[in-house]
C-alpha cells in the first residue's frame, strides 16, 4: 500500500528509537523471553482499557493458573470472570474465555499466527490481531494503538493529537516500519515512547530520543479538537455493574434479587438498568427459580 506520509516528513529513525528502547523499556512480564503467544494474547486483552500497574499482578496469577487456551476454556466462564477481578470492562473476560474455547477446539490449542485468522476469533480486533502477530510471532505488521497514533501525529504530521481513528492509520505506521526483521522491536519501541515519554497530557520532549519532531519544530501548535475529559467512574453504570458482579463473584451459588438490591441503593432505576445490561451481555444469568448467577452458573 502506498505511504500516505508527506514527502517532507521527518522520519522516525528505527535505530535511534530501538537504542533508546533497549535501555529505557519497562520490565513488563509479558515481554520476557519464553512467554507464549497465548500469554501475550491474554496481556493484550487485559491492557486494552486497563493500566499496566493493575494488569501486571492479575496477569501473573492468570498465566500461572491457566497457561494455555485449553486450560482457560476448561475453567469455565464464571471462574474466568472471578479471576478478572477489578480489571474492569468484564465483557473482555467473557470474550477471552470464548476466544480460548475456539482456539482449543479449532486450532489445536495454538494461537493462530496470521492476522486474518486472528481477526476471526472472539474479542480480537485490528489492534490485538496485529499485536499478537507482531509480538508473539515476529511479523512485520503495523501495530497501532492510541499511543502510536499520538506519536505519529506529533513527530510525523506535526499535530498535537491524532484525532479520530481512521483507515489511514495502518498505512501510516506501515510506512515507518523497517523492512528487515527489526520491525517488531521498532513497533514495541514506538508504543513505549507513546506510553512513557510522548504522553497525551505532558510529553517529555527533553528526554525524547527522536531528533526530529514536526510538532516540536512547529512550536507545538494547539490541537483542533476539544480537550478530552477524563472518564469518571464514581456513580456511573459501570460502577453499579461492578458492584453487582462483586456480589455474584463472592457467591458459589446463585443469589436472590434482594442480595443484589443492597449492593446499590442510591438509585434503584440505575441498579435495574445495570442488572439488565449484565443479563443482555451474558455476564449474568437467571435461574429457573428467579435467582441470579455468573454466566455458566445458573443451571438449566
Ligand atoms: S519531541 Fe515531544 S512531542 Fe515530539 S515525539 Fe518526542 S515527546 Fe513527542
UniProtKB/TrEMBL annotation:
EC number(s) on file: 3.2.2.31
Signal sequence extent: none
CDD domains on file: ENDO3c (cd00056)
InterPro entries: DNA_glycosylase (IPR011257), HhH-GPD_domain (IPR003265), HhH_base_excis_C (IPR023170), HhH_motif (IPR000445), MIG/MutY (IPR044298)
Cofactor(s) required for function per UniProt: [4Fe-4S] cluster
Xref: Pfam families: HHH (PF00633), HhH-GPD (PF00730)
UniProt-recorded Gene Ontology molecular function terms: 4 iron, 4 sulfur cluster binding; 8-oxo-7,8-dihydroguanine DNA N-glycosylase activity; adenine/guanine mispair binding; metal ion binding; oxidized purine DNA binding; purine-specific mismatch base pair DNA N-glycosylase activity
HhH-GPD domain span: 46-196
Catalytic activity reported: Hydrolyzes free adenine bases from 7,8-dihydro-8-oxoguanine:adenine mismatched double-stranded DNA, leaving an apurinic site
Keywords: 4Fe-4S, DNA damage, DNA repair, Glycosidase, Hydrolase, Iron, Iron-sulfur, Metal-binding
One GO-annotated biological process of the protein: base-excision repair
Domain of life: Bacteria
EC class name: hydrolase
PANTHER family: ADENINE DNA GLYCOSYLASE
Stated family: Belongs to the Nth/MutY family.
Name of this protein: Adenine DNA glycosylase
Amino acid at each position: 500500500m502506498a505511504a500516505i506520509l508527506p514527502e517532507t516528513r521527518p522520519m522516525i529513525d528505527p535505530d535511534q528509537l530501538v537504542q533508546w528502547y533497549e535501555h529505557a523499556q519497562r520490565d513488563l512480564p509479558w515481554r520476557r523471553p519464553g512467554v507464549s503467544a497465548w500469554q501475550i494474547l491474554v496481556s493484550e486483552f487485559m491492557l486494552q482499557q486497563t493500566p499496566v500497574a493493575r494488569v501486571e499482578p492479575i496477569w501473573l496469577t492468570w498465566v500461572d493458573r491457566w497457561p494455555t487456551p485449553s486450560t482457560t476454556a476448561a475453567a469455565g466462564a464464571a471462574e474466568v470472570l472471578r479471576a478478572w477481578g477489578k480489571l474492569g470492562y468484564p465483557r473482555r473476560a467473557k470474550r477471552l474465555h470464548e476466544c480460548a474455547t475456539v482456539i482449543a477446539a479449532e486450532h489445536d490449542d495454538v494461537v493462530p499466527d496470521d492476522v486474518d485468522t486472528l481477526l476471526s476469533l472472539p474479542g480480537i480486533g485490528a489492534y490485538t490481531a496485529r499485536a499478537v502477530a507482531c509480538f508473539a510471532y515476529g511479523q512485520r505488521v503495523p501495530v497501532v494503538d492510541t499511543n502510536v497514533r499520538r506519536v505519529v501525529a506529533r513527530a510525523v504530521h506535526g499535530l498535537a493529537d491524532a484525532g479520530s481513528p481512521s483507515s489511514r492509520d495502518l498505512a501510516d505506521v506501515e510506512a515507518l516500519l523497517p523492512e528487515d526483521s527489526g520491525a517488531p522491536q521498532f513497533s514495541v519501541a514506538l508504543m513505549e515512547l507513546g506510553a512513557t515519554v510522548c504522553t497525551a497530557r505532558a510529553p517529555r520532549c527533553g528526554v525524547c530520543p527522536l531528533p526530529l519532531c514536526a510538532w516540536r519544530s512547529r512550536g507545538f501548535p494547539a490541537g483542533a479538537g476539544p480537550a478530552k475529559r477524563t472518564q469518571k467512574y464514581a456513580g456511573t453504570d459501570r460502577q453499579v455493574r461492578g458492584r453487582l458482579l462483586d456480589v455474584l463473584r463472592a457467591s458459589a451459588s446463585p443469589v436472590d434479587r434482594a442480595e443484589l438490591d443492597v449492593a446499590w441503593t442510591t438509585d434503584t432505576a440505575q441498579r435495574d438498568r445495570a442488572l439488565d445490561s449484565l443479563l443482555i451481555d451474558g455476564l449474568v444469568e437467571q435461574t429457573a427459580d428467579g435467582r441470579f448467577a455468573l454466566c455458566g452458573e445458573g443451571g438449566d
